[in-house]
Design a protein that fits this description.
Elements: H1 2-16, E1 28-33, E2 39-43, E3 49-51, H2 52-58, H3 67-75, H4 78-102, E4 112-115, E5 120-122, E6 134-135, E7 138-139, H5 149-156, H6 163-176
Antiparallel strand pairs: 1-2, 3-4, 4-5, 6-7
Length: 178
């Protein structure tokens, strides 16, 4: 719940500074503690969304850089596709910065989702503020945030000199300054 609150605060700061990165800090409600002392509550269901893992499985596999792009193409046409790409680029920029700043770990294809309208967002925040998973004293986190070739391809469509990718980098830089 704290992580979602931190994402909401970051989103508010960016919005106050006229930087809309289309974050999706879904609603969370803590309702108590169970008999084992574990926190319990409810989460908002984000409709019309799929995990990156599901998108990869249904669109050619995890090593295919066109998977997310194919997903956006399947669910959007014409101007809706253009808007979905912008939603994806903005929200991907926001979450790249936010997950780095907050130190969110355990990022994998089942913890990252995309809506059919292109909004990119993270779920499952059990490891944050640098509390990363390790196994046999080996840290499992290989990078401070996730940005895959499939994410880049869905922004630049494989172009070498892409105005959309340049704009994505500008959003990342602007978000990093607040």
């Amino acid at each position: 719940m704290l992580t979602i609150q931190m994402l909401s605060v970051m989103d508010e700061i960016w919005l106050r500074n006229k930087l809309d990165l289309h974050l999706k800090p879904y609603k969370v409600l803590a309702t108590g503690v169970n008999k084992k002392g574990e926190g319990v509550g409810m989460l908002e269901i984000v409709l019309n969304s799929d995990t990156i893992n599901t998108i990869n499985v249904e669109n050619g596999g995890a090593f295919n850089e066109k998977t997310i792009n194919s997903y956006l193409l399947q669910h959007n046409k014409g101007e809706h596709l253009k808007k979905a790409r912008e939603n994806f680029a903005r929200s991907c920029a926001g979450y790249c910065v936010a997950t780095f700043v907050i130190g969110i770990g355990d990022r994998h294809s089942d913890n990252i989702m995309v809506t059919k309208s292109g909004q990119f967002f993270h779920i499952d925040f059990g490891h944050f503020l640098g509390n990363f998973k390790s196994k046999f004293m080996i840290k499992r986190e290989r990078s401070p945030f996730v940005f895959t070739p499939a994410m880049k391809f869905s922004i630049d469509e494989g172009q070498k000199q892409s105005p959309a990718y340049t704009q994505f980098l500008i959003w990342v830089a602007e978000a990093s300054m607040f």
